[in-house]
Specification:
single chain; 14 helices; 43% helix; alpha/beta
Length: 451
C-alpha cells in the first residue's frame, strides 16, 4: 500500500474541559507548519513554549509544541503535538487553523493505521493500542502491554519461519522435479508441522483467557426470589445499582455491572429469582437466568440463612462445581444462632449480610481466589489472543491438519503445498504481513479519532 501523502490532524485527548488538551498532526506538512508557527526549525523531541497565532495573526493560546521527525515518531511520519489549555473552544480553534494550513481531519484510528503501514508496529501491536486504552484491570493492562511490546508478533514469527521452511522443502519437489535433490524426508516435514500445529493450538487455547481479560470474569448472582441478590450486587458494587424491594420477583431480567477486584475485572450479573412455581413472565426470566449460569465463569448462589435448610433450585445443583461456585448465606444479621446446614455440595459457603456488610470481605476473598484460578498472573512473554486472532489461527490449524493427513496418505506434493500456503496466509493475517484492506478497515474503525 502506498504511503499516505496528506497530513492529518485531530484531538488526541478526550473531548471536554480539562487541564490540558493535545492536538496531534502527522504527515509531510508537519515540518512546514512548525516553521510557520515558530519562525524556525523545531528541535526534535523538545517541548517549546510559544504563542499559537492563527493565519490571521490572532492569538489563540499559550501552547507547548513538540516535534517528532520521521521515522522515529509514533506514525513513522513527521509528527507535531500541540499542548494547549483544555478548553474545547481553544482546541477546536487550533484544529480549524490547522485545517487551513493544509491538514485534513483524521479518521478513527488513522494515526495507528499509519504506524502500521509505515512499519512502526505489526497488526497485533496496533490492536494492543486499543487494549491498553480500554483495559479495565491490572491483568488486562499487563496483557495489553505485553502485546504492545510485540509478544504475539514474536510467537507468530517463530511459527511462520518454521512453516516457510517446511513449505520450501515441499515446493522444491514441485518447482525442480528434475534437479538432483536429496530424497524427500517426509518424517522431518511431519515433525515440523506437528510442532507448529501444537504451538498454534496453544496460542488458540488462550482465546478464553483473552476474553476474560478484555470483557471481565462473568460472575452470576443467582438464587430464589427475595434472598437478597440485588442487595448483594449493590454491596459489591458499592452503590445502589439494582432496585431492592421486600416484594419477591423485583428483578425480572438480568442487570450487569463491572467492578474491579484486586487485579481483576468482574462482570457481576444480577439475575431473576429462581422461583419453583413461576408465573409466565417469571418463567422467561428464569430461562434467562439458567442461560446466564451456563455462560458464567463464577456463580454466586445466594441462599436465605434464616431458613433451616435453604433449598436449591432444581437443575442448578449439577452446575455448582467447587472451582466455579460460591454459596453466599445471606441475612445472617437476622440469625440468633449458627448458620444452617447446607445440602452436601462440596463448595465454599460464606455467611454474609448484604444489609450490614458483614462477611462481604470474606466473600470478596473467595471471589478473588476463583478469579486468580481463571486468570493467572502470566509470564513475561505470554499472550492472550482476541476473536480475530482465534479465527485466523483456527483456519491455520485446519490447513495444517489437512497437510498432515495428506502426508500420511501420500498425496501429491502440490496438494500438500496448497494447504501449507493456506496456513501461511492465515498466520499472516494475525500480524498483518498479509495485506487485507477489509481487515484493516474493520479493525481501525473501532478506534477513537486521534489515536
Amino acid at each position: 500500500m502506498a504511503r499516505p501523502l496528506d497530513t492529518i490532524a485531530a484531538l488526541a485527548t478526550p473531548a471536554g474541559v480539562s487541564a490540558i488538551a493535545v492536538v496531534r498532526v502527522s504527515g509531510v506538512e508537519a515540518p512546514r507548519i512548525v516553521r510557520e508557527l515558530v519562525g524556525s526549525e523545531a528541535r526534535p523531541r523538545t517541548a517549546r513554549r510559544t504563542d499559537y497565532r492563527d493565519r490571521a495573526g490572532a492569538l489563540v493560546d499559550d501552547v507547548l509544541l513538540t516535534f517528532f521527525p520521521e521515522p522515529r515518531s509514533y506514525t513513522g511520519e513527521p509528527v507535531l503535538e500541540v499542548s494547549c489549555h483544555g478548553n474545547p473552544f481553544i482546541a477546536q480553534r487550533i484544529l480549524e487553523d490547522l485545517f487551513t494550513r493544509g491538514c485534513r481531519p483524521a479518521e478513527p484510528g488513522e494515526f495507528t493505521r499509519r504506524a502500521f503501514l509505515n512499519g512502526r508496529m505489526d497488526l497485533s501491536q496496533a490492536e494492543a493500542v486499543m487494549d491498553v486504552i480500554s483495559a479495565r484491570s491490572e491483568r488486562a493492562l499487563a496483557a495489553a502491554h505485553r502485546q504492545l511490546r510485540g509478544a504475539l508478533g514474536r510467537h507468530m514469527r517463530e511459527l511462520t519461519d518454521g512453516l516457510v521452511g517446511a513449505a520450501a522443502a515441499v515446493e522444491a519437489y514441485i518447482d525442480f522435479p528434475d534437479e538432483d535433490l536429496p530424497p524427500e524426508n517426509k518424517a522431518s516435514v511431519r515433525r515440523t508441522l506437528e510442532g507448529i500445529l501444537e504451538a498454534s493450538s496453544r496460542l488458540l487455547a488462550t482465546r478464553h483467557y483473552g476474553d476474560l481479560l478484555r470483557d471481565g470474569v462473568r460472575t452470576v448472582i443467582a438464587g430464589e426470589p427475595n434472598v437478597g441478590k440485588s442487595s448483594l450486587l449493590n454491596r459489591l458494587v458499592g452503590r445502589d445499582r439494582a432496585i431492592v424491594s421486600p416484594e419477591p420477583g423485583t428483578t425480572r431480567d438480568f442487570i450487569e455491572e463491572r467492578v474491579v477486584l484486586g487485579p481483576h475485572c468482574l462482570r457481576l450479573v444480577d439475575t431473576a429469582g429462581l422461583n419453583p412455581a413461576p408465573g409466565p413472565i417469571e418463567r422467561l426470566g428464569i430461562e434467562k437466568t439458567v442461560e446466564c449460569i451456563d455462560e458464567s465463569d463464577i456463580i454466586i448462589l445466594v441462599l436465605d440463612a434464616t431458613r433451616p435448610t435453604p433449598p436449591i433450585f432444581p437443575g442448578i445443583a449439577q452446575r455448582l462445581t467447587p472451582g466455579r461456585a460460591i454459596v453466599a448465606l445471606n441475612k445472617t444479621d437476622l440469625l440468633r444462632g449458627p448458620p444452617p446446614k447446607l445440602q452436601s455440595l462440596g463448595i465454599s459457603a460464606v455467611p454474609v449480610s448484604a444489609l450490614t456488610g458483614e462477611g462481604i470481605a470474606e466473600l470478596r476473598s473467595e471471589l478473588l481466589r476463583r478469579a486468580d484460578g481463571l486468570v493467572p498472573d502470566a509470564a513475561e512473554d505470554a499472550v492472550a489472543i482476541n476473536a480475530r486472532h482465534a479465527r485466523a489461527l483456527g483456519e491455520a490449524n485446519a490447513c495444517l491438519s489437512q497437510a498432515l493427513e495428506k502426508l500420511r496418505t501420500g498425496a501429491p506434493p502440490e496438494l500438500l503445498a496448497s494447504d501449507l500456503r493456506g496456513a501461511l496466509n492465515a498466520f499472516g493475517e494475525v500480524s498483518g504481513s498479509i495485506d487485507n484492506e477489509q481487515v484493516l478497515d474493520r479493525l481501525f474503525a473501532t478506534f477513537c479519532i486521534g489515536k
